[in-house]
Fold MULE transposase domain-containing protein.
Amino acid sequence: MRRVIVVDGTFLKSKFKGVLLVATAIDGNSNLYPIAFGIVDSENEQSWEWFMRQLKVVVADDNGLAFISDRQVSIAKALEKVYPLAV
C-alpha cells in the first residue's frame, strides 16, 4: 500500500440517514483499496476525530503518510489532532 490515504464523507439519503465516512488507498497494482468506513450522524469535527482514531488502530502516524481530502475544515482539524506527523 502506498502511504497516501484519501478520506471523504457522503450523505446517506435512503431510509437510513447519516453520513458515510471512508478512507481509501491505492495498492501495488494501482487498484483502489478500502481501508475503513464508518457511519455517523453528521459530518463534523467530532465525527471525523472519532473516525481518525479508529483508522489509527490500523494505520499508524508517520512522517511519510499523506492524506488527501476535499479540504473540509473538520477533516483538517481532526487530522491535526490524531495524525500530527502526517502531511
Summary: The mean pLDDT is 92. The radius of gyration is 13 Å. The chain has one domain: 4-82. Residues 73 and 83 are 15 Å apart (CA to CA).
